[in-house]
UniProtKB/TrEMBL annotation:
It comes from Zhongshania borealis. Residues 376-638 form the Heparinase II/III-like C-terminal domain. InterPro entries: Alginate_lyase_dom (IPR008397), Chondroitin_lyas (IPR008929), Hepar_II_III_C (IPR012480). The lineage of its organism: Bacteria, Pseudomonadati, Pseudomonadota, Gammaproteobacteria, Cellvibrionales. PANTHER family: HEPARIN-SULFATE LYASE. This is Alginate lyase. Pfam families: Alginate_lyase, Hepar_II_III_C. Its main location: periplasm. Residues 1-23 form the signal peptide. Keywords: Lyase, Periplasm, Signal. Residues 70-291 form the Alginate lyase domain. It is found in: Periplasm.
Amino acid sequence: MVSNILRSILLGALVLSSAQLWATAPTSGLLLNSVEAKGISQQVAELPLLAKSVEAMAEGLNAFMSIDMDVPVPRDAGGGYTHERHKKNGQAIYEAATLYQVTGEQRYADFAVALLLRYADLYPKIGPHPEHKHQAPGKLFWQILNDAVWLVYVIQGYDQLQDVLTPEQKELIARNLLNPYVKYLSVDSSETFNKVHNHGTWAAAAVGMTGLVLGNQEYVDIALKGSAKDGHSGFLKQIEALFSPDGYYTEGPYYQRYALMPFVVFARALDRVQPQWDIFKYRDGVLLKAIYACINLSYNNLFFPLNDAIKDKGLDTIELVYGVDIAYALTKDKGLLSVAANQQQVIVSGDGLLVAQAIAAQQQQPFDYSSMLFRDGANGDEGGVAVLRSDDAKSALVVKAAGQGMGHGHFDRLGWLYYDHGNEIVSDYGAARYLNVVTKRGGVYLPENNTWAKQSIAHNTLVVDERSHFNGKLGKASESSAKVSVFSDKLNAVSVVEANAYPGVSFERTMGLIQTALLDSPLVLDLMTIRSSTKHQYDLPLHYAGQLTYISEQPKVALNTMETLGKKHGYQHLWKKGWLPVNGSAAQVTWLKGNRFYSLNTLLPKDSQILFAELGANDPEFNLRRENALVLRQTGRKDTHFVSVLESHGEYNGVREYTKQPTSQVRGLEHHVDKDLSLVLVELDGGARIVVAKADSVDPDQQHTLAFNGKRYQWRGHLAIFEESSNDGK
């Protein structure tokens, strides 16, 4: 059954197929020209994904057009009426102009033109926003970032209206709105415009795209090279400085998808209008790499929640819809089509048309999610993020050994996350924020983002003397980065080092996702080595998602009263619910998540303990989610180790009421150190063993030999993994 919206598009194509709408030359075509619009109109009925996207755009816009037009004098900060109304107006100008091109319906053009003329009347009358406070002020919005975003959308709308605007209207809009707007972004707010930061990127994109449409090369040049046109700032400098050679953005994937939008939209507009810049090949094609990196930094369609991240953001965000459509148009990579199909929408653009055509022709192939290292820093020398995946991509281990990540970074050097069978198993809190929830302080970052989410104890990493890395100081943390010593996609393992988080303390973490014929599922190895000349308390938290089902010994439990784990650096937010003394032996804790069991087997020295903690203390506004953690604690030690393996096993079926293999197959765990060589020996049911051999040296060609219990282990390089059946003996 054809919807009314789709029917109007088809009728428009029939009536206007030879009319002036498509008889004229294409518009400048930032992302859509009139020839592509005709193609969309003629083919939309045969392209379900495109039809869905056009209908969704029309449905939302029609509802907005049914209310009174309002272009209010700016008054409110973010989330307030005038702020939200100007956002919606800008989006409506873009959508109405696009739908005019696609449907030929004059009412859309009339609406967009009327809004533009209202803004041309308002803009000369207003000054800097009254509620800018600590932000660099915009005029329509309280921070200039929002003004830049608004113009990125509006200039695309203006571009689509050039065949209906009269010369007098064009002159008025350019004189009263577009040119003064560019001046305010690039001259009056030159500090933001020339900043190497995503705020500067949005401003450069807005100014550059306006230049492309107005035919003003000066605007394009300053957008690309900065106000002085010397290349020390501007879009090209931002491409050079804000992404690593692998396309990783230092603030993490959540902010990468946001920062990606102005990069890919302006770059695609530039590529179409002034292809001589060859922008998608600039710096070894890093913009395309950034799109792929954003996709790869996800699991089950959700981004890894590194740094300040809202955990329900994923591959279906509008920014990545743009990225995927643009990347496919440039590469014709059929793996991107499967991502687009999961997004269930395309951009109403020439690139979106290509994607919809390919998906309708069933050309998509699975996207290749594989183990990868994403280096951090403009030169790739500021650590990185390792993503280790199982062969079937059902399991993913993420190890973060990157730089601080600017103001949105967390104090989580050498932290890790683990995903399996569609679920987050070893978790990261992400950001303490309820985005756009007015009753939660207007949707801004909550106080607990600083007191909990950013603190080291909130992550799966080492905490020394109950103090966060770098004592929780951003400036100090930004001076250095962690180091990736070894990354092996062959062994599916990584070794990372942090030497600056605590004075006089260095720690190395070796982690691997070990796939072996001895087990049905991969085994996560976690070996941390700590070196210090003085004694400390070492805490190694593990934030697990699920319900405890087994503990190898009975812990002491706080039944009637609870105390917090500490008074600051995030410890004040954790209730101490139980504790288990460990005396030089392996302990085991099992939890259930989804329909699988997960067992942490950990080897701790004498006088250690496992603390059982629950988040939620000192939370007067109930802002924090109630989540659970284990804290492995060693006290009064200099050099030491934490050795653990995490096993996924069994099955729980609540519908059919059966349980399979709820207990771990790991029966023993040993750690043997001989000078600069070590072995981790994992004994399984039936006597089989997995042995991980490690050398301090990272020389890939160096030979090593270590004898233990009558066996000799020989290997080359930093790491090796051996499998021993029960018949091998010891």
